[in-house]
């Protein structure tokens, strides 16, 4: 009878030991599962910074190819009886004037007629917009910068304004040397040089070492959206389009 009780007690202890091992194994399994889930969540939160080193070069080359092949063009610029196709996104990125003009126009492919812009300057400006650089002859730089300022081309309008201020300061210095002292007008926004009286007898030597000040043609621009052309270019959205660059492939016209 005593041996039977001992066997039962031993069997009971074995069952408790097995249950304890099973419980530990279950807890270990839950811990591993929780650790695995936590690792998965950490992997989801982890981020990678992927950088395309050739992105600027590739984008620039892509836009150049689009212009050369006239793919996806959605705007036409016309002047002096000629026209050239371009992309709204490029014009808007390079000129706040074009951005404001195109943003407020519902046409899918408008034709912008520029009355006071030369065709050669327009083509050169488009090359600057698409390539980021351009080479200009010395005798053409003045007209080129004037057109760039007129159309508010980024990077060139500022240079044109600086050159205009430099020429204005140079002309005022020459006038002050020729016409005598200038009144102190520091409180006024624009210095004014006193002109000599036409009745005064002013004798000038025939070979004067100081040449007369150059005549700078000033263009009065609107200030609603920065400097704008004197007359807003018309947008052709209905009617007969202008003469296309490719007669067999007419430009789409807004209907």
How would you describe this structure in keywords?
mainly alpha, 6% strand, nucleus, Dros_DevTransReg, disordered C terminus, Potassium Channel Kv1.1, Chain A, rod-shaped, four-stranded mixed β-sheet, 4 strands
Radius of gyration: 39 Å
Enumerate how many helices there are, as a single number.
7
Shape: rod-shaped
**Derived structural class:** mainly alpha
Strand content: 5-15%
CATH C-level category of the domain at 55-180 and 219-236: Alpha Beta
N-to-C CA distance: 111 Å
What CATH architecture of the domain at 55-180 and 219-236 would you give? 2-Layer Sandwich
Would you give an account of this structure?
The protein has 255 residues and is mainly α. The chain has a domain at 55-180 and 219-236: 2-Layer Sandwich (Potassium Channel Kv1.1, Chain A), CATH 3.30.710.10. 47% of the residues lie in helices and 6% in strands. It has seven helices and four strands; from the N terminus they run ααββααβαααβ. The protein has helices spanning 2-45, 55-69, 88-94, 96-103, 119-131, 141-150, 157-179; strands spanning 75-79, 82-86, 111-113, 235-236. Strands 2-1-3-4 form a four-stranded mixed beta sheet. A hairpin with a 2-residue loop joins β1 and β2. Residues 1-43, 161-240 are annotated as: Disordered.
In short:
With 255 residues, the protein is mainly α. 47% of the residues lie in helices and 6% in strands. The longest helix has 44 residues, at 2-45.
Q: Secondary structure elements and their pairing?
A:
Layout: H1 2-45, H2 55-69, E1 75-79, E2 82-86, H3 88-94, H4 96-103, E3 111-113, H5 119-131, H6 141-150, H7 157-179, E4 235-236
Parallel strand pairs: 1-3
Antiparallel strand pairs: 1-2, 3-4
Helix pairs in contact: 3-4, 5-6, 6-7
């Amino acid at each position: 009878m005593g041996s039977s009780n001992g066997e039962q007690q031993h069997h009971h202890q074995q069952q408790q030991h097995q249950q304890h091992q099973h419980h530990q194994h279950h807890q270990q399994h839950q811990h591993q599962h929780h650790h695995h889930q936590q690792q998965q969540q950490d992997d989801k939160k982890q981020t990678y910074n992927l950088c395309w080193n050739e992105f600027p070069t590739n984008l620039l080359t892509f836009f150049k190819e689009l212009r050369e092949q006239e793919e996806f063009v959605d705007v036409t610029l016309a002047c002096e009886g000629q026209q050239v196709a371009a992309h709204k996104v490029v014009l808007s990125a390079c000129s706040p004037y074009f951005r404001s003009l195109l943003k407020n126009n519902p046409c899918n492919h408008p034709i912008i007629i520029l009355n006071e812009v030369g065709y050669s300057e327009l083509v050169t400006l488009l090359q600057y917009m698409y390539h980021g650089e351009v080479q200009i002859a010395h005798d053409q730089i003045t007209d080129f910068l004037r057109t760039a300022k007129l159309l508010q081309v980024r990077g060139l309008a500022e240079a044109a304004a600086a050159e205009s201020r430099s020429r204005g300061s140079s002309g005022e210095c020459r006038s002050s040397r020729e016409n005598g002292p200038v009144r102190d007008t520091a409180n006024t926004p624009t210095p004014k040089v006193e002109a000599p009286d036409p009745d005064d007898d002013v004798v000038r030597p025939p070979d004067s070492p100081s040449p007369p000040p150059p005549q700078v043609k000033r263009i009065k621009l609107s200030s609603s959206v920065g400097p704008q052309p004197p007359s807003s270019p018309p947008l052709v959205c209905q009617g007969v389009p202008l003469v296309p660059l490719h007669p067999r492939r007419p430009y789409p016209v807004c209907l």
